[in-house]
Write a structure and sequence with these properties.
By secondary structure, this protein is of the alpha/beta class. It has one domain: 3-Layer(aba) Sandwich (Rossmann fold), CATH 3.40.50. Helices cover 37% and strands 21% of the residues. It contains seven helices and ten strands. Strands 2-7-1-8-9-10 form a six-stranded parallel β-sheet, sandwiched between helices. Helix 6 runs parallel beside helix 7. The longest helix has 14 residues. The radius of gyration is 16 Å and the shape is globular.
């Protein structure tokens, strides 16, 4: 399986925005992309069941070919950590099922580039024993860390990067997701300060998604 596991330094830092942009770049560069968020919380109730907005955005960014569980395995209504949301819903998350869905979804449909987006950050619990780090280790994909570009990101980014490397996983890049009201010079300054302390690839995503192209392998 070729691709990345997308995690964040916090919730609402732009993980899905970055993952969707990367999925579209993968499609544009000739890949069959499998973009997958297996677990989503804070889902809306509809006549047909719960709908994960992030799951739908990701699948559509990959070309809209994913159906059923390939769009997501678990959906919970409460906007909480997956383990907590599942407990409130009277359910338990089967991590093995999540891993199989990711691997089989990529292999059975000949995807050449796979993106698996976690929920929240690196230590967010999935089961009483497992967290997002556990899922990433089982998938054995390089990790793409998404962080906000504004105040506070230096500390959050470095702590997350340190935790991932301590867990023995490779890091594809740190992407600072710059929003419209973020000061461009602050994003650049934050990237420079993180770069002084961490030698890996750092990208700033604003309006030009081609900055993510170094993360897309040749098809």
């Amino acid at each position: 399986m070729t691709g990345v596991f997308v995690t964040g330094t916090d919730t609402n830092v732009g993980k899905t925005h970055v993952a969707c942009a990367l999925a579209r770049r993968g499609v544009a560069r000739g890949h069959k992309v499998f973009a997958f968020k297996p677990i989503e919380t804070g889902c809306a109730r509809t006549a047909g069941g719960y709908v994960g907005a992030d799951q739908e955005l990701l699948a559509d960014a990959a070309g809209g070919w994913q159906t059923g569980p390939l769009r997501g395995v678990y959906r919970f209504p409460l906007p909480l950590a997956p383990f907590v949301a599942a407990t409130h819903a009277g359910r338990a998350i089967d991590l093995d099922l999540v891993v199989r869905a990711a691997r089989d979804g990529a292999a059975d449909h000949a995807a050449s580039f796979t993106l698996v987006e976690g929920a929240g950050g690196w230590r967010v619990p999935i089961t009483p024993e497992a967290d997002m780090a556990t899922l990433a280790r089982q998938l054995q994909l390089p990790v793409l860390v998404v962080a906000r570009a504004s105040l506070g990101t230096i500390n959050h980014s470095l702590l997350t990067l340190e935790a991932i490397e301590r867990d023995g996983l490779g890091i594809a890049a740190l992407v600072l997701s710059r929003r419209e009201n973020d000061e461009p010079s602050a994003a650049t300054s934050n990237a420079n300060e993180i770069r002084r302390r961490w030698p890996g690839r750092i990208l700033i995503l604003s309006s030009d998604p081609t900055v993510l192209d170094p993360l897309v392998p040749p098809p």
